[in-house]
Amino acid sequence: MEARIVTLPGDGIGPEVVAEGVKVLRSVAERYGHRFTFEEALIGGGAIEATGAPLPDDALSACQQADAVLLGAVGGPRWSDPSAAVRPEQGLLRLRREMGLYANLRPVRLYPVLLDASPLRPERLEEVDLMVVRELTGGIYFGPRQEASPDDEIAYDTMVYTGGEIRRIAHIAFRLAQQRRGKVTSVDKANVLATSRLWRRVVTQVGVEYPDVTLETVLVDAAAMHLIRRPADFDVILTANMFGDILTDEASMLAGSMGMLPSASLGEGRTGVYEPIHGSAPDIVGQGIANPLATILSVAMLLRHSLELEREAQAVEDAVARVLAPERQGHRYRTPDIASPGTETVGTQQMGDLVVAALRNAE
C-alpha cells in the first residue's frame, strides 16, 4: 500500500525519537512491500520561534491531508513561562481540536523482563495489561477560561461536557473491552463535579448496550490509589481529559518508564496522531540516551489503526519484545531509563537499530 505520513518532531528529544520511529517505518515498508512517503512539519516551541505560531497553518493542513501523523514532543525551558500569550502546548490542543481527535488510547503493557524497572513490587505487576481511553477534545482543557492579568488575582478554567461527547468516547471504550477482557472502569468525580455526574449517567446508559461488558465506576482519587495497589484488576479505563492525562503519567511507573508507553489519538476517520506519552525531556536533549521504544510502539499503533496493517503492527511489537528478551541466550539491551544489573546499556539510535534488525530477522 501507499501512505503519506507527516512527522512533527517538535522540541527536546522529540526529533531524536521520531527519527527512530521513521527508521522502523521505512524498514516495515521495505520488508512488506509498502511505499511510505514522509513530510516533516513544525509544532511547539520551534514552530513559535520560526513562525510565531505553535502550529502553523501549513503544518495543520499537511496533517489533515496525511494518512497518519507521528509526533514527538513539545515544550522546553525557554517556552515555560505560563503567562506567555503563546505556548507550545497550544499547538497540541489546536491539532486535536481541528482534526477532531477526541479519543486518546494509551495502552499500558508490562514486559516481564522489565518488572525490575518499576518501583512497585513485581508481584503487584503480574498480568498488568490495561488500556486507558481518555476523552481528548472536551473538559477543562477546552472549556471557557479567563487568564489572570498581572494585576488580577482571579483566573478560571471551566470543565464542560455534553452528553454527545461522553457517549461517543464511551462507545469506543466498550467496544475495546469486547475485544479484550470485557471490563470497563469509568473514572469520574461524581461526588463533587456536575460534569462527572453527567458523565456517570451517560456512561451507565451506554453500558446497557453492551451486556457482555462489566461496568464499574470509580472516583478518580480511588482510581489513582488502585492503580498502585491492584493494577492488574483494570482492563479498560474510561475517563475525562484531565483525569486521563494525570492517570496515564502515573500508570507509566507500572511499566518502569514513560519511555515505554505509546498513544494514539483518533477521531471519526482513519487519520490519527501517534506519539509517546513522555514530554520533551530537556535534561537529556542531545545526549543520545532517550528511550525511543514508546515512539516505536506508537508506530505499531499507527500501522494498526490508521493504515489497517495488523500483521505489520504485530511484527513491530514482536520485534520490541525480542530486543528486550532475546529468544536465544544473548545480550539484553536497555536504554538508561530501564537499565538494570545484567543488561547492556545502549543509546537512542542503537535501540532503533536493534528493533530494525529484529524486524528484518523475523521468520
Which secondary structure elements does this structure contain, and how are they paired or packed?
Blueprint: E1 2-10, H1 14-32, E2 35-40, H2 45-51, H3 57-65, E3 68-73, H4 89-99, E4 103-109, H5 122-125, E5 129-135, E6 145-146, E7 156-157, H6 163-179, E8 183-188, H7 194-207, E9 214-219, H8 220-229, E10 236-239, H9 241-251, E11 262-266, E12 273-276, H10 293-305, H11 310-324, E13 333-334, E14 344-345, H12 348-361
Helix pairs in contact: 1-10, 1-12, 6-7, 8-9, 10-11, 11-12
What does this structure look like?
Helix content is 40%, strand content 19%. The protein is α/β, with parallel strands linked by helices and 363 residues long. The protein folds into 2 domains: 1-102 and 264-363, Isopropylmalate Dehydrogenase (3-Layer(aba) Sandwich), CATH 3.40.718; 119-254, Isopropylmalate Dehydrogenase. The strands form 3 sheets. A 10-stranded mixed beta sheet has the order 2-1-3-12-11-4-5-10-8-9, with helices on both faces. The longest helix has 19 residues, at 14-32. The radius of gyration is 20 Å and the shape is globular. The two termini are 22 Å apart. The mean pLDDT is 94.
Q: CATH first level of the largest domain: which class?
A: Alpha Beta
Strand arrangement within the widest β-sheet reads 2-1-3-12-11-4-5-10-8-9
* Average pLDDT rating: 94
Please state roughly what percent of the residues sit in beta strands, choosing from under 5%, 5-15%, 15-25%, 25-35%, 35-45% or over 45%. Answer: 15-25%
CATH topology of the largest domain: Isopropylmalate Dehydrogenase
Helix-strand category: alpha/beta
Q: Radius of gyration in whole Å, from Cα?
A: 20 Å
What's the total number of strands? 14
CATH 4th-level superfamily of the largest domain: Isopropylmalate Dehydrogenase
Name the overall outline.
globular
Amino- and carboxy-terminal Cα gap? 22 Å
The number of helical segments is: 12
Total number of domains: 2
What string gives the helices and strands in order? EHEHHEHEHEEEHEHEHEHEEHHEEH
CATH architecture of the largest domain: 3-Layer(aba) Sandwich
Share of helix, binned: 25-40%
| Uncertain parts | none
The description of the largest β-sheet is: 10 strands, mixed
